[in-house]
Amino acid sequence: MRARAAGMPRAVRVPRVLSIAGTDPSGGAGIQADLKSIAAMGGYGMAVVTALVAQNTRGVRAVHAPPAEFLRAQLDAVGDDVEIDAVKIGMLHSEPLVAVVDDWLARRGGDLVVLDPVMVATSGDRLLDHAAEAAIRALCMRVDLVTPNLPELAVLADEPVAGTWPDALAQALRFARSSGATVLVKGGHLGGDECPDAIVTPEGVAGEVSRPRIASTNTHGTGCSLSAAMATLGAAGRGWSDALARATDWLAGAIAAGAALAVGGGNGPVDHLHEIRPQLVPPAPPVSWTTQAWADVAPLRAAVDACSFVDGLRTGELDESVFAWYLRQDALYLSEYARVLARASALAPRSDEQVFWAEAAATAVAVESELHRARVGADAAAPAPATLAYTDHLHAATARGSYGEVVAALLPCFWLYADLGERFVLASHAGHPYRDWLSTYADPAFAASNRSAVEIAERAASEASASERERMSVAFARSMRHELAFFEAPVVAASAATWPKEAMRGA
Questions:
Q1: Among all residues, which ones are annotated catalytic?
Q2: Residue 57 in contact with residue 269, Cβ under 8 Å?
Q3: Structural domains present in the chain
Q4: Residue 189: exposed, middle, or buried by beta-carbon count in 10 A (0-12, 13-18, 19+)?
Q5: Each residue of 352-408: pLDDT tens digit?
Q6: What does DSSP assign to residue 46?
Q7: Do 485 and 389 meet the contact criterion of CB atoms below 8 Å apart?
Q8: Collapsing DSSP states into helix, strand and coil, what is residue 447?
């Protein structure tokens, strides 16, 4: 008779579960699947080999069963040393092997035992001879839980395979009453969108769950895995109905995640460790500083696009006097900007970066200033508040900030203008009044300079401390706010009562 009444497992802190089963070199079924399932349910797995099976996801090629005496030696070696909380039994290839396991269990007594009767192949072929089948039926009288699929249940009950779920429940009840064992009935072989499972005791259906059928070919070893999970949960103190709900929920997730393993060309394995997989996979690399900084100022960039000055540049509808006022202020800005670029060159830790900033300073004075002279000549102007605020910010970065902060403060004058030039050049045409401005910032050479500035900023951020990177982000965002104010200033000045006079002076 069985060691204890069905549904009355012994609770332990860490279930120590012994799997007695055959092997699967591909890792999806047999002992390999059992050990993964036990671990996934929080148990400690052990293994005794009943058969060496040459198989993969496409099928079984050969089976080598060790002598019964060697099976007994394995069982005794484990049992003499380790306290076992539950035993899961899988493939027992012959009647002598069943007899060894039966005798070993009888001598021990008190073990929680779960039997997965491996009796019918996926093809439908019976795997055991009549003597072995009879021995498995007798073994069922000693175990706590039997987990057959429907063809195996039919062999145990010596009846035709059930074609409906009610028929399967009725068949399981008859076998439970004849054997005294509790039966986990599995409806996976039935058609339909739902996969029902149930716990059937000699008294009747004790618990039932049903889950949507998962469209997947990763079902190799599901029977082994479920029975091993049930043994572990039973040893942990869960009743069979509660264990079934937990185990089938886990197994459904394992089937759904199985395809991502990309193992084998046939029916692939389930992902036994899918619940802890996120902890095993290294976290995604952090977002680069430049990417995050650019994303953080997205609202400011949108405000730049929307401001009437920038929109007027794009469409060509900007008043020329307003643009002239902007250019005079920009000339003042570039003069100070060039000094800050020179300071960045002096602070740069690498010679290539020193050269880059020095050349950028020269370009700011020579090349970009040419645009201003062509448009407004050499007329002097007083710096507007927005101009002073921006240049003061840049000088403050050079006076008090690190090299990284200086670079971050300078970066928007590259990146924002390159971005505007790349997008707004599409609006340019032969008669566009500001085509020269649009073309300047859409020039491939300027785009290349921007990429270099971004790369330098990223390198500086990667070598900076966390606090310095935060200060870099603040400096970058502050420069972007100044860029927006700089673009808004001409329109603000145009709306002032003194506009005609101020427009001529550029103040």
A1: 186, 219, 221-224
A2: yes
A3: 16-280 (3.40.1190.20), 289-505 (1.20.910.10)
A4: middle
A5: 999 999 999 988 777 555 666 666 565 667 899 999 999 999 999 999 889 999 999
A6: E
A7: yes
A8: helix
